[in-house]
Amino acid sequence: MESTRDLTGTQSRLDPSVGKPDAQREGEGEGVHIPVLFQTALDGLQVRPGGQYVDATVGGGGHAAGVLELSSPDGRLLGLDRDPAAVKAAGRRLASFGGRVVLVHSSFNHLAEVAQTCRFVSVDGILFDLGFSSLQLADATRGFAFMSDGPLDMRFDPQSDRPTAADLVNQLPVDELAALLSRYGEERHSRRIAEAIVASRPFYTTAELVAVIEQVVKRRTRIHPATRTFQALRIVVNDELAELEKALPQAVEILAPGGRLVVIGFHSLEDRIVKRFMRRESHDCLCPPEVPVCVCNHQATLRVITHKPIRPTPEQVAVNPRARSARLRIAERVG
Ligand SMILES: C[S@@+](CC[C@H](N)C(=O)[O-])C[C@H]1O[C@@H](n2cnc3c(N)ncnc32)[C@H](O)[C@@H]1O
What we know:
Blueprint: H1 38-45, E1 52-55, H2 62-70, E2 76-81, H3 84-93, E3 101-105, H4 111-117, E4 123-129, H5 134-138, H6 165-171, H7 174-185, H8 190-200, H9 206-216, H10 227-237, H11 240-254, E5 255-265, H12 268-281, E6 302-304, H13 314-319, E7 327-333
Helix pairs in contact: 1-2, 7-8, 7-10, 8-9, 11-12
This protein binds S-adenosylmethionine (SAM).
């Protein structure tokens, strides 16, 4: 179980396998999703009995089960996920909470509208646990994993008409591909990888792409050479950064005063967006310094609780390697 600094005064400590059938307890079987920074997220949300919460990325329902447990007996949770398979998995995991849970297949880009339709107005806490889940990674047919062979897809929502990773690597001109790898993967070898991809395409599977990257970039650290390329493709396939930028103001819109926003990001690009958003929203006036009198009339909507992101401890990373790059930020709705 996680040990965390006590951010909130909340003393409850939950087992992250709460709400799971015994056969699906942590660490057993393939593709089990261990919620990242589980207790820290629950503490950050200040979950209380009877509260109303939104899990904008419900995934396998791990964090959501914790929220429902702590908000017993009558707290409610709205869970969104862009992946229909995740919504189904969360439905199975959270079935025992009955009518206290509402699950919707939707991108969090439609958060305010979905919340209004489901009558979650003025909620007490909203969680974003960004990126992909272990369930998605374990399913080779989704194309997220460079360690197993599958179609180069990477769409969170396979029913969407967004371009797949195969579309990008097979169709983009070399300059655009290099720029994409550099910008969204922060890949130092972006140009060499892009040139090798263009010289070897078409690609149909993850293994074909990994083989070409491995020819160009030699492994020098424990990070696989394809990690950054896969991250970049996934971000672009799902338009992840733009979706996050659109969702954060909607989260503030539906939070009650005193309500908490908790965001777990997994790379510096999304963490930067969250950090800037929280900072900006914690200021009353956003006028440039040279403007003597405020003309923007902006009112602060958030109070930043975590001025530095909370990172997992080495012990947490040992139990859950996916937590390695996690950064958790918390803010509170004011006004
Ligand atoms: C890290 S997992 C969440 C795991 C979850 N917290 C748990 O404990 O099981 C991230 C989830 O966010 C979903 N996701 C990614 N982008 C999304 C978006 N724009 N809208 C809604 N869900 C999204 C993914 O499909 C994935 O299931």
